[in-house]
Amino acid sequence: MSDILSLLPGYNCGSCGFRQCRDFAAQLKVPGDLQKCPFLERDMFRENLGKLSAIVGAEAPAEERIVGVIDGLEADFMLAPLRDECSCREFIHPFDGSVEVRVGDYIRYRPLACPVTHFAKVIDIDPGIYTIHLVGPLHRLGREDFKFKELGLCMILAFEGRVSRGKLPKVGQTVRFVPEYCMMQKVHSGMVVGVEGKDIRIEGIDLKVW
Questions:
Q1: What is the C-alpha to C-alpha distance for residues 113 and 121, in angstroms, rounded to an integer?
Q2: Which H/E stretch holds residue 21?
Q3: What Å distances lie between residue 36 and 16, 95, 113, 126, 155, CA to CA?
Q4: What is the C-alpha to C-alpha distance for residues 54 and 132, in angstroms, rounded to an integer?
Q5: Are the CB atoms for 112 and 155 separated by under 8 Å?
Q6: Can you tell me the distance from the alpha carbon of 203 to that of 9, in angstroms, rounded to the nearest whole number?
């Protein structure tokens, strides 16, 4: 445990979904879990990443089952953030379009069919569609007084991320996946519309999995 902690960035930023690096270290089971930390792939930590992978153990076999925690359904793969990003990119459409939102704003919203309220930072805007990085619940921001705009109920249109564990899909496949930072570890479904290496785009997102 101490060896792992000494090699982690030590920022306690919460980007991995845990309050502290110590909590993150305690749940590491396979090298793929290390990809939840967005800082380990930066040049200054690349050597540490190799050492951590050796400590955590051999890479998980391709046939490893990925099962959603909340629903017990089997997924095809885990979806991690794109390189040097804090979460997968989500593309959302608010049902109430009256709120004025700008790039850089923080928003609070609830995805359609999800019981959990999300906090996110807007990184791009198209007419009616916001591209966001998930940044909360509040404890992951390390503060309780930050300002946000209330969007209410939103439809999740697409995800962009990187396959970290499981089967790499092909364009046109309907897939089941779990976003690594999903607070409920819920299996999502959708259709793959773009693949570049391990980076993929999934559209037609649905929380009802057949």
A1: 21
A2: helix 21-26
A3: 5, 31, 25, 28, 25
A4: 34
A5: yes
A6: 33
Domain spans of the chain? 2-60, 74-206
CA-CA distance, 147 to 14, in Å (whole number)? 19
Q: How far apart are CA 11 and CA 202, in angstroms?
A: 31
Residue 204: what are its φ and ψ, rounded to 5°?
65, 45
**Percent of the chain residues past pLDDT 70, beyond the cut:** 90
Q: How many CA atoms lie within 13 A of 54 on its CB side?
A: 7
* Range 13-27 average pLDDT: 86
Six-digit token string for 19: 């309050």
The DSSP code for 169 is P
Q: What is the pTM of this model?
A: 0.68
Other CB atoms within 10 A of residue 30 CB: 15
122 within 8 A of 108, measured Cβ to Cβ: no
| Dist. CA 111–CA 153, nearest whole Å | 6
Question: What CATH class has 2-60?
Answer: mainly alpha
SS (H, E, C) 33-86: HHHHCCCCCCHHHHHHHHHHHHHHCCCCCCCCCEECCCCCCEECEEEECCCCCC
Beta bridge partners of 131: 91, 124
